[in-house]
Design goal:
By secondary structure, the chain is an alpha+beta fold. 18% of the residues lie in helices and 37% in strands. The chain has four helices and 15 strands. The strands form four sheets. Strands 1, 2, 7, 8, 9, 10 and 11 form a seven-stranded mixed sheet that branches. A hairpin with a 2-residue loop joins strand 14 and strand 15. Helix 3 packs antiparallel against helix 4. 21% of the residues are buried.
């Protein structure tokens, strides 16, 4: 998140410090409490961005704690139409002074990502917030263009050698089979696994870059089985949510070769998509 204070843009971390008494993050420049103000604006946005005519009174009641005295109960909505939004997240804060800021949030409505800018006032005496003016909806920036990246030279011999032990490792990882996991883990490494939340379907792809060595960084594309409430059905009218599904995921593993065996030293999410 980026904060703008008196025209100066900088990362959030530059303007924050830790409150030793409460553990809360507070702003050290201009005194506006960015963390708390952003939380307040986020809660407001979750109410403001959702409306339908049959629930207008409920919306007005939920908006009231955020609005100044005498504000229009629907805060600009005429009571017709409907809108749904979710995934409200902080995007940026422009601090004017210790009492005023504009908090910008990102949200999703249907297939669109958009921004909502919310002016917020902070009463330094009562330590309370209020929305100080009409919010503004803005288009969110479109996604970045991902530059093409050529794949590495691959060690096909190592890929063939690793495929079976890594498939067995992911099967044990899905089940949290402690005994099997310890057989595949490097000395001193403890691996937890999913505890049956997913099932292993297949190791779809494995990329082992050159040059070689006893310690390697390998990228694995794994297909997990997603559990469902019922057995798979051939009925085309069946609820897809009641049927088992599959989910592809990519992982970066650090593996170490000792003798003629490979052991897993670490597992994390892959840095770039493969395949």
């Amino acid at each position: 998140m980026v904060i703008v204070v008196n025209g100066v843009r900088a990362p959030f971390e530059r303007f924050t410090q830790q409150n030793a008494a409460t553990g809360a993050v507070v702003v050290s420049t201009d005194g506006f409490p960015v963390t708390q103000g952003t939380s307040f604006a986020s809660q407001f946005a979750a109410v403001y961005l959702n409306f339908e005519a049959v629930r207008s009174q409920e919306r007005a009641a939920r908006l009231a704690p955020f609005l100044p005295d005498g504000a229009e109960p629907q805060f600009g909505w005429d009571g017709f139409g409907h809108m749904t939004a979710g995934a409200v997240q902080p995007y940026g804060v422009e601090v004017t002074d210790r009492e005023n800021a504009v908090v910008t949030l990102t949200y999703q409505s249907g297939s669109r990502r958009q921004l909502l800018s919310v002016p917020v006032f902070y009463d330094t005496d009562t330590k309370k917030f209020v929305v100080s003016g009409r919010p503004g909806i803005l288009p969110a920036p479109s996604q970045a263009n991902l530059p093409a990246q050529s794949g590495p030279d691959r060690d096909e011999a190592a890929e063939l050698e690793l495929r079976t032990p890594l498939a067995d490792f992911f099967k044990a990882y899905a089940a949290s089979d402690t005994a099997s996991l310890q057989r595949y883990a490097d000395a001193g490494i403890t691996l937890e696994g999913f505890g049956g939340a997913f099932t292993f379907v297949e190791l779809k792809d494995l990329v082992v870059p050159l040059p070689g060595g006893a310690t390697r960084e390998v990228t694995a594309t794994v297909v997990w089985g997603v559990p469902a409430g019922a057995a798979p059905s051939a009925d085309p009218t069946a609820d897809p949510g009641d049927m088992g599904g599959k989910l592809e995921q990519a992982y970066l593993l650090t593996v170490v070769k000792q003798g003629d065996k490979w052991f897993v030293k670490g597992i994390r999410g892959a840095e770039r998509s493969v395949g």
